[in-house]
Structures are given as C-alpha cells and as structure tokens.
UniProtKB/TrEMBL annotation:
This is Peptidase M28. Residues 309-419 form the Transferrin receptor-like dimerisation domain. Residues 11-215 form the Peptidase M28 domain. Belongs to the peptidase M28 family. M28B subfamily. It comes from the Bacteria. InterPro entries: Peptidase_M28, Peptidase_M28B, TFR-like_dimer_dom, TFR-like_dimer_dom_sf.
Length: 436
C-alpha cells in the first residue's frame, strides 16, 4: 500500500480518506486502473492547490491499495493495523472507487451522506448527455420503473427521483472492494462511486484482454467518465475537508431503516404462512393426491413452525431515530450557520465517529469480523449487501434464537446512534430536546 497526504491546516487529526486499488489479475486497464487514474487526477489537483498555498481544513489522505484482487488484503491489513490508534479516532469518512465505464452513476454508502452526494452529483455534468449526473440518473430511474415487471424497489426509487427536493437514495454497501474493512469492520462512514451499464468490459473482465486499447475503444473513449468521476469524488472529498458544518442528515436513513425492518417482518410472515399451508396439505394428504400414482413419491420435509418474534425493540429504536433525525435536520438547517466557529467544529467532531455506534464488537453470528449491524455482505450472496444483516439472515436461515438476540443487539445500536443525534441537536439548540 502507498499513500500521500495533505495535512489539514485547522483540523489535522480529522482525516478524509480516498482510496482505489492498483493491483490487477492481468493488465487491469478497466479493473482497477480506470478508477485509479481518476483518483490520481484528484490528487494532482489537490497537490497544485497545496503548492499554491491552499491547504484544506482537514487532512486529505490518498491511498493506493495492493492485494485487493486476492481478497482485499492490502486495505484490510492497513485498516486492522491502524484501527484503534488512529482510524477510529481520526477518520471522518472513506471514499472508494474501483473500475468504471460509460454509463449511469452508481452510488453506494452510508446513507447519512445522501445530501452531500446529491449536491455533488447536481454540480457535475454527464459527459455524453450534457445534463447533470443527478438529472440523468433520476430520469433513468423513472424510465426503468415504467417498464413491465418493474420491482417495488424500482418504483419507490422512481417516486423519490421524481421529487427534485429529495436526495438521491444511496444503495447499501456489501463487499467486493476496499471499502469493506472501513465500514463493515470498523464502522467508518464510507462511500463508493462508479459508472457503468454502457461500456463493454464484461467480456474481458479479469482477462488478458483488459488492455488500454480495449478500454479506450469500448469502455470509456476519451476517458470522459474517468474525468467525471474525478470531478464528482473530488468535490465530495473537498467538501468534507472544508465543511464548517457536518454534511450528514439523518431523516432519510431513519426512514430507510423502517423500510428494512418492514421487509424482515414481511419475510417472517411469509415463512409462517408457507409453514401453515404446508401443514394443511400434509394433514389432508394432498401431496399424494396431486402426484402421479404410477411414479414413486414422498412428502416434502415439514417446514419448521415460525415463532412470533418480538420486533418491538427495533420498532421503538427506529421510531426514536425518526424523531431525533427530523429534529436535528431541522435545527442544523435553521440555525447551523449562526453557530460560533468553535461550536461548528465541535459539532463536526461529534458526528464524525457516529457510524461506529452501529457496530457490535462481538460481530455478526458466525462471522465476528463483520461488525456493522446495518450493512454487511450476505453470507451466501457474494458481494451483495444484506441490510439489518444479523436479524435478516437469522430469519432467512430460521435461527430463531439468534433472531431474537439480534433484534435486541441491533435495537441497542440504533438507540445509541439516536442518542448521538440528540446530543448533536442539543449542541445547536441547547435546551430544546431531551433524551427519549
């Protein structure tokens, strides 16, 4: 791993981390050097600013990872080495990229940063259509939701996209790139940016054909989207580094947690219904009647009964966060700019480590290295994310005692997170809000 940093002029112990890996299975023009080139362009621009005497308020650290391809080795070793002494105390956020190609913007990460990312995406033009990255993405989502067979998620996303006053929703992070150690293990707020869907890199992925010639002819001619990525992530990095007030807003995250919990409740009820229907079919010997009498048959293995889980602790925690988040978001919008510089700095420092409240040092059941209770890669989904993973996977795998425990553990983490939001709000309006 190699790194370069620009020490902060006012808050040197608050770090904005920006990374991309450089190792590849073969030539790696697309994966990972397309994103790495964009990162180096950002670093070059910030270097020019530093030479001209413009130092950021906070420290910028640019990180070039090796050993990503064989299992995120470089970033994981670095994170584990510096976790307690530096990263948990100093890291504000980690911004990651990897491979990119022509197409739509994809944004994943900590949902408290939706407003920050949306504003940056509004300010960068898509190189082929001439509209902002955000405007093109909103349009694409609305068209996708109009197609036959569109999912409920796609339709909900399109509804959000149609309202320009609402932020772009971020997708949850799973694994597959170097952000995993930061968010899944340490609980450091993270973002991941990419472009895709219109290039032709899939057929050359991790092969000797992933060359400069192929990439510049078929994936990103003229490196236009590499430039767009540098402009987008560079803005996010600089705005985090220069911000007087914390950019986090929490209402969208609180509402999203309620959606995730609703999905788990629906899954539990669906499993209960399936077990009930099967019991009836077995009792009435209907499987035998439905089978061909001339073919050997056997009844299916009976499904286990589904107990009634107590989701009330999670309901209460999420409801508290909704109230706390709405109050904080309103307070910082109304009064944040009027705070003294010292109070603004204190507020920023108070919220920078708040994501860590959503972790559990004991880790998730069966995989203690993964500590984040809101985002994790699924045990059997590869890179794909599972939200509220301790509870969700316990329900999916019918580990009911684990599900009960994870409801309590996750609820306690969300309560702690809500307490942090409330403390921040009291810093803005000292006597207006008490602990729930």
């Amino acid at each position: 791993m190699s790194s370069r940093s620009c020490g902060g002029a006012e808050r040197p112990d608050e770090w904005i981390l920006r990374g991309n890996h450089r190792d590849a299975w073969v030539f790696g023009a697309s994966d990972p050097l397309s994103g790495h080139v964009a990162m180096l362009a950002e670093a070059k621009a910030f270097g020019a600013l530093a030479r001209a005497g413009h130092r950021p308020r906070r420290t910028l650290m640019y990180l070039s990872w090796d050993a990503e391809e064989p299992g995120l080795g470089g970033s994981t070793e670095w994170v584990e080495t510096h976790a307690a002494e530096q990263l948990k105390r100093k890291a504000v956020a980690y911004i990651n990229t990897d491979n990119i190609e022509r197409g739509l913007l994809n944004i994943e990460g900590s949902h408290a940063f939706e407003r920050l990312v949306t504003q940056a995406a509004d300010d960068v033009l898509d190189p082929e259509t001439g509209v902002s990255l955000a405007a093109r993405l909103r349009g694409a989502w609305r068209v996708a939701a109009s197609r036959p067979g569109a999912s409920d998620t796609a339709r909900a996303r399109a509804k959000t996209a149609a309202d320009r006053s609402q932020n772009l929703p971020l997708s949850p992070l799973g694994s597959g790139s170097d952000y995993a150690s930061f968010i899944c293990h340490l609980g450091i707020s993270s973002l991941h940016f990419s472009f895709g869907g219109e290039g032709h890199s899939a057929g050359v992925y991790h092969s000797a054909y992933d060359t400069w010639e192929h990439y510049t002819r078929f994936d990103d001619p003229g490196l236009a989207y590499a430039g767009a990525l540098a402009k987008l992530s560079g803005r996010v990095v600089l705005r985090l580094a220069q911000a007087e007030l914390p950019p986090q807003r929490y209402s969208g995250f609180a509402n999203l947690l309620a959606t995730y919990l609703g999905e788990i409740k629906a899954l539990t009820e669906r499993k209960r219904e399936e077990a009930s229907v099967q019991r009836t079919l077995l009792k009435e010997d209907l499987y035998r009647l439905a089978d061909d009498p001339r073919r050997p048959r056997g009844d299916p293995t009976p499904l286990s009964p589904v107990p009634w889980l107590n989701f009330a602790p999670l309901d209460n925690a999420i409801e508290r966060l909704k109230v706390s988040a709405l109050a904080f978001d309103a307070a910082v919008s109304a009064k944040g700019l009027d705070l003294s510089p010292a109070t603004k700095a204190e507020l920023f420092a108070m919220l920078a480590p708040l994501e860590q409240a959503l972790t559990d040092d004991r880790g998730l059941p069966g995989r203690p290295w993964y500590r984040h209770l809101i985002y994790a890669p699924g045990r059997f989904t590869g890179y794909g994310s599972k939200t509220l993973p301790g509870v969700r996977e316990a329900v999916e795998e019918e580990r009911w005692s684990d599900a009960e425990r994870q409801v309590l553990t996750t609820a306690e983490a969300i309560q702690a997170y809500a307490s942090g939001v409330e403390r921040a709000r009291r810093l803005i309006v000292p006597d207006a809000f008490g602990d729930a």
